[in-house]
Amino acid sequence: xxxxxxxxxxxxxxxxxxxxxxxxxxxxxxxxxxxxxxxxxxxxxxxxxxxxxxxxxxxxxxxxxxxxxxxxxxxxxxxxxxxxxxxxxxxxxxxxxxxxxxxxxxxxxxxxxxxxxxxxxxxxxxxxxxxxxxxxxxxxxxxxxxxxxxxxxxxxxxxxxxxxxxxxxxxxxxxxxxxxxxxxxxxxxxxxxxxxxxxxxxxxxxxxxxxxxxxxxxxxxxxxxxxxxxxxxxxxxxxxxxxxxxxxxxxxxxxxxxxxxxxxxxxxxxxxxxxxxxxxxxxxxxxxxxxxxxxxxxxxxxxxxxxxxxxxxxxxxxxxxxxxxxxxxxxxxxxxxxxxxxxxxxxxxxxxxxxxxxxxxxxxxxxxxxxxxxxxxxxxxxxxxxxxxxxxxxxxxxxxxxxxxxxxxxxxxxxxxxxxxxxxxxxxxxxxxxxxxxxxxxxxxxxxxxxxxxxxxxxxxxxxxxxxxxxxxxxxx
Length: 477
Hints:
With 477 residues, the chain is mainly α. It has 2 domains: 16-170, no CATH class; 225-468, MetI-like fold (Orthogonal Bundle), CATH 1.10.3720.10. 69% of the residues lie in helices and 2% in strands. It is built from 21 helices and 4 strands. A two-stranded parallel ribbon has the order 1-4. Strand 2 and strand 3 form a beta hairpin. Helix 14 (328-354) runs antiparallel to helix 17. It is flat. Mean pLDDT is 79; it is low at 1-19, 42-66 and 68-76.
């Protein structure tokens, strides 16, 4: 036994990989600095004319390239100079690592990411030049300078990977962080592509006067004029008030209130019966939107055709109102609330089922009533589900207008039930006063995104999110 312990104690630590990316990065960076200018040197030395075939790396460098007829083939752009700039950065990083004696954690990541990004940009630039050449009938020769630059960037990317591998072997905590980042990378990619980039594009669009009436014209940036127009709109207070009322009432009474009541009730009855009632409450959510709204419209149809009015007539009640006209908000909230309650019900039920049964048993032994158990055990243990459902349903209600559009189209009358998201939709994608006002609609939508972001931060503070994600404190005996 002691010999085994001595053998384990004498085991050498894990070896750090000796292969450093600097050996590959330095020559690749030098090649990237030289290769970009080789085609231009040959171009001027040979005295070629504009009508002659154009080499790949000439496209998009310092000068405009034109056909023999004087038509600009491709406007000059500094994009192609990203390759030599990348070479300079990689050389600087290699020099710093030589002086330090080892590769830092960030050098490999910077080299890899920068080389890959520039490689993709140059590839896209060349593809764009090819499209322009085909359009004007000019030949573009895929010249060696472009191939060499691609290979140099690829070599620098491999060098960055090798340097990152060395840094991971030297620092286990960095390796753990990198593995966690790699695990989150697919989700981060989706968020960036499908949320952050569209938000940026929407903000840029909101600074223009783009509309269907001037779609063929170049974009005209008008600064914050769309936002000034938005906040000076005479119906802006009405739409804002409608949105607040709709979100607060639907969220409080149905998406959170009724959902929590349903979860508590169906969790304290027979398991099969609870499953049956939860399934019934899911029917509005899984029903097609149009079918669901048609059912509600049949309920509140004008007298004497509506189901509610027919029932009132059978009871001998003479006053049969047109419910959708006289009480539109009641039906808007009911229609959306029955759908939203099912989502919260499922989440809260899962949270209740995950609470240890021993807590309930101990409370009952101590003589606690059902209300005391719910107040002191169930609700405190549902902070995570409450945070998720409240934040998710708030954001969902802010951007939802489908059922309102199908039921009332924002009426009856002028902006009676119109909410912010519906206004943005009408401005941008409906023929509003004879024109689709995309720039103006984007301004409405961007303000809504900003409001949603602020509300998310408020919820994180109210529910003390930092305390929820803290690791449990374990006493060391």
